[in-house]
Amino acid sequence: MGIGRVLGFAGATVVLVGMPGPNNLYISLRSLTQGRRAGVVSALAIETGTLVYIVVTALGLAALVQASPALFTAITITGALYLAYLGVKTLRASGAELGGIAPAPLGRVFRDGVVVNLLNPKVALFFLAFLPQFTTRGAGPDQLRTEMLLLGVGAMLIGLTLDLCYAVGADAIGRRFRSVRTTGRARNLVVATIYLGLSAFALITAL
């Protein structure tokens, strides 16, 4: 890969990864409601999911998904349903559970972040359609695998940097949000609305 291709990949990745989507909004949501620590854990969780995509893509399993539109649609719909589940769960929770009195354990924050990323259609499209465009034409299997790994790791590092920016920025806004005397039920409604909105976005992408 030439330096021009690498720079082009880096610039395009910053734009694509930085655009608001389920991952960015999930990180922001956690920072807004639970603080910077939860936001950073969410960012690490998101990129753990990206690491799974890198391995799967390098092994060539992504080609199977790309060859089967029905499988890709099923993954997208599953992700949308999971986000909807989180939204409904939040609506049914007591006011204190997301009102800042009893934040979600960081283990659950991490687990949900990984799942949100793995079922994010934006990430799937990135690895299926965007990443291969920057590999060397006519490269052999070993070279292609190496290039995919390097590009994937580069994308993950760029993503982690941007994710941490979202976490820190959202925490700064969240400090004011959490200091306002807002009822737990009202905060739950805000959080649930975001989750359900993400679910609707994913469904629109799939259909």
UniProtKB/TrEMBL annotation:
InterPro entries: LeuE-type. One of its GO terms (molecular function) is amino acid transmembrane transporter activity. It is a multi-pass membrane protein. It is found in: Cell membrane. GO terms for cellular component: plasma membrane. The chain crosses the membrane at residues 6-26, 38-64, 70-88, 109-129, 149-168, 189-206. Keywords: Cell membrane, Membrane, Transmembrane, Transmembrane helix. This is Threonine/homoserine/homoserine lactone efflux protein. It comes from Kribbella kalugense.
